[in-house]
Amino acid sequence: MRIETFIERQTIIENNAGAPLPRVRAIYENLHAKHRYPDPAGMRVTDARIDGIAIRRFLPAACTAGTVVYLHGGGWNLGSVRSHHGITADLAERLGHEVVSVDYRLLPEATYAEALADCREVVEAFDPLAMIGDSAGGRLAIDVAYTSLWQGVLGLIYPVVGTPTLESLGEDAPLLSRADILSLWRTAAATVPDIPAARPPAARIEALAVERDPLTRPLERAVEAWRRNGASVGYRCAPNMVHAALHAHAELPEMQTAWRDFCQAVKRRLDEE
Asked: Angle 3-15/21-33 helices, nearest 10 degrees?
C-alpha cells in the first residue's frame, strides 16, 4: 500500500470530526478493524477484567514467561482493545510474551487521572517486563512509569511528551495537526501529572516515531534529554510515515521495517532480563 492510500482512508475520521462522539468512536473502530489481520497460528486471545477494568490477553503459541502491558492510542477519547487488536496480536507474536491490552476509561466520560489510574492498576497487577503505548497511550505509559514503582522496559510509539505548545510541536502533517494535538491536550491537561519532560520516565526506553508527525520533534528532544540524564534509549523514525500508520504496519513497507526493528529492540532488552 502507498502511504497516500492509507491517508485517504483515514480522512473519514477528520470528515466526521463534528459528529457525536459515539458515532466517531464507531467509525474509528470500524476503520481500524480493516487492519485486523488474522491472529498468528496457535495464539490464544481472551477477555477478562482486573478490578473492573477490561483487558484483552494475547498468549502466543511459543511463549516465554513474563507479561507485556499495552496502552492503546486514540487521543484519550477514542480507541479500545478491539481497535488495536491487530497491533497487540502481532506484538505478542514478535516478542514471544503474553501481551495484556488495557481498555482504560476514555475522556470526556472520565478524567485523564482516572484513565491513568486504570492503566496503573493493571500494571501493578501484572508487574510486566515491559509497558508499551502508542500516541495518547504512549503518554499514559510515560505517566504510569513516572507515578508508580514499576521498573521495566518502556516502549513508546509516537507519544505525547512534555507540554505541547505551538512552539514545541513540529509542522502540521496529514491526519494530525498542531491544532488537533492542542485541542486534545486541553481535555486532559488539568489532571496530567506535572513532571519535568527531561526526567527519564524509565532507565530503559525504546522509541518509535514517524517522519510526518508534529509529535516527532518534541520526542526527539526528549530522547536527547533522557540520554543526557542517564537513560538507555533506543530510537528509530519511519521515513515518510504519518501518525496512526502503525495500524497498517503489515501493508506499509517503511512502517513494517520500523515496527520490526522496534519489536526486535524491545525483545533484546527482554531477553536480557
From this structure: 160
Polymer length of the chain: 273
200 grid coordinates: 527519564
* Full-model pTM: 0.97
Please give the C-alpha separations between residue 29 and each of 58, 99, 100, in angstroms, as whole numbers. Answer: 19, 20, 19
CATH value at residue 189 = 3.40.50.1820
Identity of the amino acid at 82: R
Q: Angle at the Cα of 248 (from 244 to 253), degrees rounded to 5?
A: 110
What confidence tens digit (pLDDT) does each residue in 180-234 have? 999 999 999 999 999 888 899 999 999 999 999 999 999 999 999 999 999 999 9
Sheet holding 153-157, edge to edge: 44-50, 53-59, 97-103, 64-71, 130-134, 153-157, 204-212, 232-242
Q: Provide the domain count of the chain.
A: 1
- In degrees, rounded to 5, the angle at the alpha carbon of residue 248 between the alpha carbons of residues 160 and 90 is 90
Exposure string of 145-167, with b = 16+ CB inside 10 Å and e = fewer, is bbeeebebbbbbbbbbbbebeee
| Nine cell digits for residue 134 | 502508542
Beta strand spans in 214-258 (E) = 232-242
Is the bond into 108 cis (omega within 30 degrees of 0)? yes
228: phi then psi, degrees, rounded to nearest 5: -60, -30
Range of the domain at 162: 3-271
What is the maximum span of the chain, computed from C-alpha positions, in angstroms?
Answer: 48
CA–CA distance, 251 with 256 (Å, rounded to integer): 7
